[in-house]
Specification:
It is a single chain. The termini are far apart. The radius of gyration is 20 Å and the shape is globular. The protein has a 4-stranded parallel β-sheet, sandwiched between helices. Strands 1-8 form a two-stranded parallel ribbon. A two-stranded antiparallel sheet has the order 4-5. It has 9 helices and 8 strands. By secondary structure, the chain is of the alpha/beta class. Helices cover 33% and strands 15% of the residues.
Length: 262
């Protein structure tokens, strides 16, 4: 009886959402009120299905970003980037972009965990440790959480590797990257990360998976990965929910210095 009363009050104060976050269409089965508050992810089946890459999309074999004028590797991955291989769910547009926005700016932490679990099936090299890219402490205080950590939690639940927080730290606030061009982003992120003093990092001698929400130019991931490599990681790869939808030119065959057989 007490539970019935509580659920009735919850239904009045916080009515269960009956429409999808990303398309505003109806949800198949509205969940019970208490579950709605705590952990429900109100995304419809059609939107979940629309998030992954189009099977016919021409993507870079390393970073998963769209490639133009060829196949294989994009020009930016012809010399392997510090963050290694990238696994992503889809392009940063449409319903996936909307979902990322809800995770990053609207407090939908449970959605971040669910998306991380969905992303896990893409990861082809199981890591030994999972490292969410940290926010600056002031940014995390403002937001209340780190969206990369929520995504990492979903990955960890499926991959069976621990999430390690606190060893990798952001040394300075770098501001928003959105309006900066590629060169400005890379300059802005140089030296932005480090290792917490007095610690032997958890990734030393191990295979690490960095986690972030979106890969655009790769500046943030490269700066973080460089720290992991410099402090003993055996390998460093990257998992993100989405990659930029802007095509990158294909690498030229026989690109000088390439670490790949193009």
């Amino acid at each position: 009886m007490l539970r019935t009363i509580i659920e009735g009050l919850v239904s009045i104060l916080w009515p269960p959402r009956s429409t999808c976050l990303t398309c505003d269409g109806p949800l198949a089965e509205p969940p019970p009120p208490l579950a709605t508050i705590a952990e429900t992810v109100p995304v419809c089946d059609a939107c979940w299905a629309a998030m992954p890459f189009d099977p016919e999309a021409r993507l870079c074999a390393n970073c998963s970003r769209p490639i133009a004028g060829g196949t294989g590797f994009c020009a930016e991955c012809a010399d392997p980037p510090p963050f290694g291989r990238v696994w992503a769910l889809g392009l940063h547009r449409g319903v996936l972009r909307t979902a990322v926005h809800h995770v990053k700016f609207r407090g939908r932490q449970a959605l971040g965990v669910a998306l991380g679990g969905y992303l896990a099936a893409r990861v082809q090299e199981p890591p030994e440790v999972i490292i969410p890219i940290p926010l600056h402490p002031s940014r995390q205080r403002d937001r209340g959480y780190n969206q990369a950590e929520r995504i990492a939690a979903g990955l960890a639940a499926q991959l069976g590797a621990p999430v390690v927080e606190g060893d990798l730290v952001r040394l300075r606030r770098t501001g928003e990257q959105t309006r900066r061009d590629r060169a400005e982003r890379w300059r802005n992120l140089a030296g932005a990360f480090g290792v917490r003093r007095g610690r032997i990092p958890a990734w030393a001698g191990r295979d690490a998976l960095l986690v972030d929400d979106v890969l655009t130019t790769g500046a943030t991931a490269a700066a973080a990965a460089a720290v992991l490599w410099a402090t003993g990681a055996r390998s460093v790869n990257l998992a993100v929910l989405a990659v930029s939808d802007k095509p990158i030119p294909a690498a030229r065959a026989g690109f000088a210095g390439s670490g790949y057989d193009l």
